[in-house]
Protein 1
Amino acid sequence: MKVKGYAVLEANKDLVSFDFERRELRSDDIALDISFAGICHSDIHQAREEWGPAIFPMVPGHEIAGIVSAVGSDVTKFAVGDRVGVGVFIDSCRKCQPCKDGLQQYCTDGMTGTYNGYERDGKTVAQGGYSNKFVINQDYAVQIPANLDLAGVAPLLCAGITLYSPLKNWNAGPGKKVGIIGLGGLGHMGAKFAAALGAHTTVFSHSPNKEADAKAMGAHDFIVTKDPEVLKTTPADFDLILNTVSADINIEDYLRLLKLDGTLVVIGLPGKPYSVSAPTLLNGRRSLAGSMIGGIPQLQEMLNFCGEHNIVSDVEVIEPSYINQAYERTVASDVKYRFVIEASKF
Ligand code: NAP
Ligand code: ZN
Ligand code: ZN
């Protein structure tokens, strides 16, 4: 199948228009016309090889919302015309315990990423969502509720689930105090979800101008961290803090803000190790944890939750020719709060 998209041809180079092919439908595949594709900071990390060697040409994009255009002969879960989402992985082994439990992102054999990796045949390079068409096995796609705007839905497929999953796992809700570090693509979904789940929600941001937006998203408190000294006088009463920052920050400053048995979850992937001192962990029996996106059942649960609560991402819709500027603005923390590419313009 002929596809039009945008690709990085070489690490650190600008993205350019790129024509390529995807497989024709297998019996259990669906094809979709992509409507919108979100720009995740992980796309930028990989295009710039900030996580190590990558595969080029690379068509990034793992926040995909579209409309089913064709279904294979054995497809039961989707019909032509359905609103469909695709996230960070397109396959997994299906046999290991995490896969059987619907936690495909933790597949012991490794999930098959939507791009910058090989499909399970070990030789086909997976190409992502900055394109106009997609093909995927029906078991790795999800249904999008009818009431949600597709542009605002695209970022839910990575940014949304990546914050929803730890909030659910660590029981964010009434009576809990939750902190979100960084009000970017991930963080703004964290603020919306934590507030919708009924938790007292605090946003930590190094951008003072984001306060009104954070409050409009449901945050109760907004703490400006431009001068990290402010964290020394912030009370240590948080049950849960989620770090979504894409850059290297001192997480020790935030570990100290956890109350007894509180948990700090690492979500941002700056590509450098964090440093933590033992006394800060021991004092208060604190936990340092990590969390990665979410499995297919939870992805569907999150979208249904969004449908019920009318939650979507705040987006800036752009044309493909703006992708390179969008990368620069994302790195500069200058996006409100996710760039989404209009895929019909590829
Ligand atoms: P983003 O939109 O660029 O947001 C990151 C936010 O971090 C910025 O908006 C900014 O918020 C804050 N920040 C950036 N530079 C900073 C600095 N130098 N000092 C302090 N704060 C800074 O990125 P994203 O798409 O949300 O992704 C965030 C991170 O999560 C990336 O590293 C990405 O790779 C990773 N990620 C992880 C998973 C997972 O499964 N764990 C999934 C997707 C993405 P303020 O302006 O409010 O300070
Ligand atoms: Zn992502
Ligand atoms: Zn598996």
Protein 2
Amino acid sequence: MKALVTGGSRGIGRAVALRFARQGWDVAITYRSKREAAEETLRLGGDEGGVLIAKKLDVRDSDAVDRVVDEVIGELDGLDVVVNNAGIMENQAAAMMSDEAWESVIATNLTGPFFVCRAVLTHFLMQRFGRIVNLSSVAQDGSAGQANYAASKAGLVGLTKSLAQEYGPRGITANAVAPGLIETEMTAEVTAEVRERWVELCPAGRLGSAEEVAEAVWSLSRREASFINGAVLHVSGGF
Ligand code: NAP
């Protein structure tokens, strides 16, 4: 299988790329600015046997998305799986939220994945096969101080389910994974108070790991996951 993982330079995206590589899949990752981190993902996945390539890409730029998707399909000689993982968080109380905080989060977490899905769909339709996995969040149900992030992740579920209905008849599945609080750079700034509250409310009694999320992404990306479509898989320790 051949896969594209956006935001594969670190965190969950890196764990997904390495999980795919461990499976012997050929994997392309993208990164926004942290080239050294992306190269570290390639190095870590290098021993696994598959082809790994890294491309600089800002998912907010639709022309760049089209170009990079074309390059990846050319260099991997095909594409079967796309994982929309690139995302950001910019928490502010809604009453005080800047236009920039709203727009950048929606553009990165929702519009970007739409651009990527649109770009890969032509190819998936031609081969009558494809797996789309989008990284949503438990915040899709609403999260105080995260109106922008929650709206982007709920919107991503709407996008996912629409694609599932539109392209399910053509051999393409679209599913979402909704992680809870996962230990990555994104959550490094989460306060001790929020972490403690999370741990109290989470039946698993801890934060999750990027590898645990990657396992769920992999399960939805497999060829054998052919009857799972439009699903939202929570990876939250039961939160
Ligand atoms: P992370 O460690 O902050 O990594 C974010 C990744 O996205 C990096 O590879 C970054 O590239 C890339 N990126 C950011 N903005 C981009 C843009 N405009 N264009 C292209 N790439 C961009 O995040 P994470 O914690 O692994 O989260 C991964 C995904 O899971 C996100 O969608 C996040 O919302 C979701 N999620 C995370 C958690 C959690 O608790 N961590 C929970 C639920 C959902 P650079 O390295 O080059 O900056």
